[in-house]
Amino acid sequence: MAPEYFSNIDQVLAPVRHEMGNSINSVKIALEVLVRNFDVFDDEHKLKMLQGALEQTERQTKVMRALKSYSRTTLSDITDMPFSPLWNEFMMTVNRKTKESGIEIAVESPSEAKWIRADKNALRSIFGHLLTNALDSVENVEEPRITIGTMNSEGRLHVFFWDNGPEISEKNLARLCVPMFTTKKNNAGIGLSIVQKILAKMDGILHIVTSADGNRFEIGIPLAEKKSAIKKYAASF
User: Fold this and answer.
1) Claim: this prediction has a pTM higher than 0.85
2) What is the mean pLDDT of residues 139-165?
3) H or E segment and range at residue 146
4) 223 forms bridges with which residues in the sheet?
5) Is 98 helix (H, G, I), strand (E, B) or coil?
6) Model pLDDT, residue 187
């Protein structure tokens, strides 16, 4: 096997090893101390130590849940489909998130109907993860802004999510799509890895550009042959 294969495996396992190793070691130490001093500690102290151990097991559960989410990411129906209905549906989510977060989200709507070849449910998931990623990026920005838009280029429909969050370091940029990698305390670090996994199966692409002015996450989805796509779509009703 190529050296790159083992390097990629190590990248995936490293954050899992870190998360699981730390929490398991914390539980082990807490239980060892509790067993040695069971007759010495009062009930309040015992309860505090058990609660701490329980919190660590919840961390382990979070890791396993994230890995399960990644492994279960599948595509059920890649087909030719109109893009506008899905985009309009996503705009409802954007409007709701704008009200909930109070963050300005500008939208550059598509100028014409486009036909793409994709899995509708998987694309919904991609949009959701990229929107969440943008919102997380501007969490501590004084005047947060996000722009979402589309364009046609080189046989693909490109959808971009731009935010004015802090520039991503070169080191972190190389690891963004590694499962379980995150710089956020309460983030599972699984969203972008799922995005990349789905796009790979749909012959899509993910391009990330970061600078002092902000970050741009752009996906490219194959365009469908319009005439054949319309015919197939109409036949499905």
Assistant:
1) no
2) 90
3) strand 145-153
4) 116
5) helix
6) 61
